Amino acid sequence: MNFINFTVCNINAMAGNITLTIIKPVAFSKNNAGRILSRISDAGFWIVAAKTMQLSSTEAKKFYEVHKDREFYNDLVEFMSSGPVLIVMLQKKNAVEDFRTLIGKTNPADAAEGTIRHDFGTSLRANAVHGSDSDENAIKECNFFFAEADRFYQPG
């Protein structure tokens, strides 16, 4: 199988076909990362890049800066820097919309049965996964975490 490294594939050309997810600290600590990744793969997503890390407070603040004026911002930053996470760049046609459907509504109590947040989330705060909310934000988020040389796209 041939892979396309970023050096020959511009991320902007991938708009609409990439998204970013973060398996959040509680889901990661409960050893659900493998089960979540299996669901993502079964839904037709290709893993372009992945890494495990613990976000510092500074990194979480910068990543979630778009929410800095929202009342939940400080709690979100505290939670996302509270333990290890798995960050994954994904590829699929219509990636953002399809991934948002797969993960379900933000609050696991409101998420449809069979969605990732319904099945693995424990609360609004600990809703198992982050998912990009637009193609534009997917590009920004992928650039935040992954260097160009660390991305391997599925051809076609």
What layout of secondary structure does this protein have?
Blueprint: E1 4-5, E2 18-23, H1 25-29, H2 33-42, E3 46-53, H3 57-63, H4 73-80, E4 85-91, H5 95-103, H6 116-120, E5 129-131, H7 135-145, E6 152-153
Antiparallel strand pairs: 1-6, 2-4, 2-5, 3-4
Structural overview:
This protein is of the alpha+beta class. It has one domain (4-153): Alpha-Beta Plaits. Helix content is 35%, strand content 18%. It contains 7 helices and 6 strands. The strands form 2 sheets. The protein has a 4-stranded antiparallel β-sheet with strand order 3-4-2-5. The chain is globular and about 40 Å long. The mean pLDDT is 92.
Structure keywords:
single chain; 156 residues; alpha+beta; Alpha-Beta Plaits; 4-stranded antiparallel β-sheet; two-stranded antiparallel sheet; 18% strand
